[in-house]
């Protein structure tokens, strides 16, 4: 189900790829970077390329960022004065079941990251304690 939802996000962008080529993609990409949906390095790599490559980048990267990224993208397109295109994208957004699946996947990923961070923190604390013991001797 997650793969289908991600594929649908890519398809939505693909269906509007011609229209996307005529908007301020550099501005959209800058806004996505500010929203932390693309990395600083990714931004600087893609901003130098042509419109087709930028649209392909969006088509490839946004699905991995989840439903919130798609909605943020649509909001950015709207804020940049492309209301008609934003309305079209909004009209094609994912169905409820797909949204829930994407959100559940993101929640699972966050939970796993939190567990890993707690383990790292515990390991660092153990290292600090061991270091203190060694220094006291």
UniProtKB/TrEMBL annotation:
InterPro entries, per the entry: CARD, DEATH-like_dom_sf
Q: Which residues form the CARD domain?
A: 1-92
Gene3D superfamilies linked to this entry: Death Domain, Fas
Q: Could you give a single Gene Ontology term from the biological process aspect?
A: regulation of apoptotic process
* Signal peptide interval: none
Q: What is this protein called?
A: CARD domain-containing protein
């Amino acid at each position: 189900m997650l793969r289908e939802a991600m594929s649908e996000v890519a398809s939505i962008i693909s269906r509007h790829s011609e229209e996307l080529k005529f908007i301020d993609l550099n501005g959209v990409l800058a806004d996505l970077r500010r929203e932390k949906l693309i990395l600083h390095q990714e931004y600087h790599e893609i901003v130098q390329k042509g419109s087709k490559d930028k649209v392909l980048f969006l088509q490839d990267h946004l699905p991995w960022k989840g439903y919130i990224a798609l909605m943020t993208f649509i909001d950015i397109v709207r804020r940049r004065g492309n209301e008609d295109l934003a309305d079209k994208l909004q009209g094609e957004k994912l169905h409820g079941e797909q949204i829930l699946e994407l959100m559940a996947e993101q929640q699972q990923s966050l939970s796993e990251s939190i567990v890993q961070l707690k383990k790292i923190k515990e390991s660092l604390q153990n290292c600090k304690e061991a270091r203190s013991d060694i220094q006291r001797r």
